[in-house]
Every structure is written in structure tokens, then in C-alpha cells.
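Entry 14. Structure prediction run on the chain below.
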Amino acid sequence: MPRSVVVYTDAATLSGLKDFARRECADCPTKPYTFSFGQKTEAGNLRARICELREGVLLPAIDELVKRGIAVLAAPQDRDVRVRTYGELMDEADRRTRLATLQFATPIILDVSGEVVPFPVISAIFRGYVERWKAFSNVDISGSAEILRYIRVADFKISCVSTPYGPGAQGWVRLEMEKGRTEEEIALFNGLIDFAFFCGSGLHADEGLGQTRRTAGVGQGGAGQPEERRTRPGRRIILP
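Output returned:
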């Protein structure tokens, strides 16, 4: 199940945890985890967000570091600490809202038809979400390819920034589904966007790029505050 935790530790321990993940998943065509960049805190240690897309990939190793006293986990109240099953992500997805804003908190780089592109090509981004979903979930999202035809960019603010892998895009994009789409299609659109919080966007999400959040809105100064997603009952989405 997708799980996001926040770890406070030193640079050497974080680097060692990344090395461990690379070794354990060296043969995985799609990496079952993501790392954020480590952010230095006032206490002098690093804060990093780590996500598992497949249960048990990294959490046992992190728990061992915590037991040894060389890492600390953030409290469940931290906004970046989340856990959902794949079924819950779709069952809880908004079935009516056709607008969503994605904030790329760290730069994204995409593979578009074999070429590396430093711009948020929406079809490529959503194909990445679908690929990662299908790699680790047994929840059917049949019809995911079809909804790409109905997603439009309504607005965006993107800057080109340097990364260790070349230029990347950072900023926000407001997306809209065409009018007349079914509740099932809208729910699939929103469910995949909620999944982006865990799986990231584009290439090198396992190295800190592509950290993605849904934001509640966009003002003149940039992206708004991260949206708090409320749990509500729903139905599993299986499109024809």
C-alpha cells in the first residue's frame, strides 16, 4: 500500500538508506519507492520524506534505524505522513470536481517518446502514474488510457531550473477534465492525482525529483496550500 513517512536523520544515514534501496531494488524496472531531497532543519539534521509504493520495501529498514536511535520518525499529525491502500485512493477519490492543481515541489524531467523533456507534458505525466499504479496495485483502473484525451491544461506557472540530471521544470499546473465526463472518469482523474503524492512525477523520483502535491488553489503569488483530502465512502472504479 502507498505509505509516506518523514524521517529525521543525518546525511550519512540518509545516503546509506538510499544505497540500501538501490541495492534491494536494482532489478526493479519501476522503483517501488521515492525519496525527497533532505532538507536541513534548525537542529542541524535532515528531514526527508520517503514513500513506499509496495509494502515492506523500506519501512523495516527505517524502523531498525529508529530502534538504534539514529533516525526519528515524524508524528502521524505531520502533513506528509500518510498511508492509503490502493483501493482507498480510488474509493475516496472526488467524483465531481473536474479541476485540480498539481504543484511540482521539486523539478520534474520526463521521458516523452524516448526523449528527455524538461517540461510537464501532461499525457506523459499521467502515463507515469498509470504505469506505477499497475506495477504495484491489484486494483483495476481499466480505462485510464482513455481519460488522457479529456484532460486539458487550464493554467500554469513553470520555471526552468537546474538539476543533477539536466534542466527540469518546477512550478504548478492547473488541470481540467472536459465537461460531460462521467463520475467514474472524474474519480479516476482525481484518484491518480492523489496517488501522485506518493509516486511522484517523471524521472528520478527515487532521487528527489518530481515531488508532487495537489494544492487547494492558486493565487497571484503562486501555488496555494496543500489540499487536505477528506475520507469518504465510495465505490471502486472500474471503467469499461
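Confidence is low (pLDDT under 50) at residues 219-223, 228-240.
Filed with the rest of this week's runs.
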